[in-house]
TrEMBL record:
UDP-N-acetyl-alpha-D-glucosamine binds at T10, G11, G12, N122, R159, S183, I237, A256, L257, T258, V259, A260, E261, Q282. It is a peripheral membrane protein. The lineage of its organism: Bacteria, Pseudomonadati, Pseudomonadota, Gammaproteobacteria, Lysobacterales. Its EC number is 2.4.1.227. It comes from the Bacteria. This is UDP-N-acetylglucosamine--N-acetylmuramyl-(pentapeptide) pyrophosphoryl-undecaprenol N-acetylglucosamine transferase. CDD domains: GT28_MurG. One of its GO terms (cellular component) is plasma membrane. One of its GO terms (molecular function) is UDP-N-acetyl-D-glucosamine:N-acetylmuramoyl-L-alanyl-D-glutamyl-meso-2,6-diaminopimelyl-D-alanyl-D-alanine-diphosphoundecaprenol 4-beta-N-acetylglucosaminlytransferase activity.
Length: 348
């Protein structure tokens, strides 16, 4: 069969799409990718040898009054171009992994014989997938959303190297703390964590690996001061499987992929949601674990004292074991293969 992945804009949409594409290719199907010109997908997808078609489309919201007035025309043009793409490649099913490029592609499926499948990574449906889910033959989710839009909870795919990690959960001291701000870094983690964790670093109770983000090294190093020589500080971490294997505790943003990865490995985590995320989806992502006693959450507008209390609690071995057991209950494995299977079934 011929499948098209529709995804772009952020790694949170693109990398799950690549995982699903590879799972479908392993089953002998042909894969095509519908992305947006100038998006991250233009660079990343090419590296994986997937046939890539790019539409000249921009985000459909958040562009002011002019953007609102021109949106219908841009959307119609994108729908026409997406329809040509589906017909040219005889696409049996288009899989929306989210991002604005999936909007014209999703609507175009209704103009030809292409079936529509949706996978929503976050715990709140994004604008595009929210619209497409009402028209899709199959809807899958990364989080348990209680069957919203008649969806099936399958989880979010993570890399094989991460899924295969086997950890020792019994370390008492020093405790390995992983701080992740994403590829662009997180200002709060870079500026507030160094002072808040200083006493534990100086006493030798914890060791820190800190991913600070592109061009944020000097700023974060300065924040750590004389402690910097004892911190493994990196702008970007290439081998995430290795650091997840190392980590006993994680402090990080709550993007869907990060939540999926720490959940799969079973790392007790304090999530610090990005406060300006669309629909505040990072808070909802984090709360899906917090409500199951599988994680803790600290918001940027909370006090340092609030974070310190939560961090001190997560250092306790009993608390960590309790959270690891809770994570094990909600862990999803072989997610990309499961998504590929359900996509096949939807087309048959």
């Amino acid at each position: 069969m011929n499948f098209a992945i529709m995804a772009g804009g952020t790694g949170g949409h693109i990398f799950p799409g690549i995982a699903v594409a590879k799972a479908l290719q392993k089953k002998g199907h042909s894969l095509f990718w519908l992305g947006a010109k100038g998006g991250m997908e233009e660079r990343i997808v090419k590296q994986h040898g997937i046939a890539l078609t790019l539409l000249p489309i921009k985000p459909l919201r958040g562009k002011g009054i002019i953007g609102m007035l021109t949106m219908p025309f841009r959307l119609l043009k994108g729908i026409y171009q997406a329809k040509k793409f589906f017909v040219k490649h005889n696409i049996d099913a288009a899989i929306s992994m989210g991002g604005y490029v999936a909007a014209p592609g999703g609507f175009a499926t209704k103009l030809c014989r292409t079936k529509l499948i949706v996978h929503e990574q976050n715990s709140v449906f994004g604008m595009t997938n929210r619209s497409l889910a009402k028209k899709a033959e199959l809807v899958m989710t990364g989080f348990d959303l209680n069957g919203q839009y008649s969806s099936r909870w399958v989880g979010n795919p993570v890399r094989d190297s991460i899924e295969k990690i086997i950890k020792n959960y019994e370390r008492v001291k020093p405790i390995n703390v992983l701080i992740l701000g994403g590829s662009l870094g997180a200002q709060t983690l870079n500026t507030r964590m160094p002072s808040m964790l200083a006493n534990w670093v100086k006493s030798g109770d914890i060791k820190i690996k800190h991913q600070c983000g592109r061009d944020k090294f000097r700023m974060t190093e300065t924040a750590y001061g004389e402690m910097a020589q004892d911190i493994d500080l990196q702008e970007f971490i290439q081998n995430m499987a290795a650091v997840y294997q190392w980590a006993d505790v994680c402090v990080c943003r709550a993007g869907a992929l990060t939540v999926a990865e720490v959940s799969t490995v079973g790392i007790p985590t304090i999530f610090v949601p990005y406060p300006h995320a669309v629909d505040d989806h990072q808070t909802h992502n984090a709360m899906s674990l917090v409500n199951k006693k599988a994680a803790l959450i600290w918001q940027e507008n909370e006090s340092d004292e609030s974070f310190l209390n939560k961090f001190e609690s997560i250092l306790d071995l009993g608390k960590r074991n309790e959270m690891q057991l809770a994570l094990a209950k909600i862990k999803k494995t072989h997610v990309a293969d499961a998504i590929a299977f359900y996509c096949e079934e939807a087309v048959k």
